[in-house]
Amino acid sequence: MLGARKEKNKSSQIASINTDYVRAVVRKEQRQRAHRVRLYRRLAVFGILVVLTAIGIGSMMFSQTKTLAAIEQEKAEALERLEEVQEEQEILKHQITKLNDDEYIAKLARKEYYLSEDGEIIFAIPEKDKKGKENKDGKE
């Protein structure tokens, strides 16, 4: 143990040569270390910026995809409603053409309002009610 202490003391007692060349080499090494530290710092900041940008772009894409899906759903629903309205419009147009026909109007009036032509006799036949059918089914 005493031998290790003596060697330590000897190495700390060694003086370095303090010449211009040695100082220049030491300064160059210090500049290189400082440059390396600044480089690592710049790379770390740049890496953080890249990660933050990627997260921002990813979240934007996710929200846009979600919005696009909602818009597509609304579009599909609107197209279904459009088809229904177009079918209803066709039915109404067909009904308008029928209502312009005098024979159809006369037939409709005879059916709905029990109107008759000269010499006709109208017989009203009662239609079976759902209640009547239920009563019969319950009794049997």
Description:
This protein has helices at residues 2-12, 20-99, 102-113, 130-139. It is mainly alpha-helical. The longest helix has 80 residues, at 20-99. The radius of gyration is 49 Å and the shape is rod-shaped. The chain starts with a helix and ends with a helix. 0% of the residues are buried. The model has no long low-confidence stretch (mean pLDDT 84).
Which SSEs are present, and which pair or pack?
Blueprint: H1 2-12, H2 20-99, H3 102-113, H4 130-139
What is the structure about, briefly put?
Helices cover 81% and strands 0% of the residues. By secondary structure, it is mainly α. The longest helix has 80 residues, at 20-99.
For the biggest sheet, the summary is: none
- Can you give the mean pLDDT? 84
Q: In total, how many beta strands?
A: 0
Beta strand %: under 5%
Structural class: mainly alpha
Q: What sort of overall outline do the alpha carbons produce when their principal axes are compared?
A: rod-shaped
Low-confidence stretches: none
**SSE ordering:** HHHH
- Helicity, as a percent range: over 70%
Rounded radius of gyration (Å): 49 Å
Organism: Chungangia koreensis
InterPro entries: DivIC, FtsL/DivIC
Keywords: Coiled coil, Membrane, Transmembrane, Transmembrane helix
Protein name: Septum formation initiator family protein
Name a few traits of the molecule.
single chain, 140 residues, mainly alpha, 4 helices, DivIC, FtsL/DivIC, coiled coil, Septum formation initiator family protein, transmembrane helix
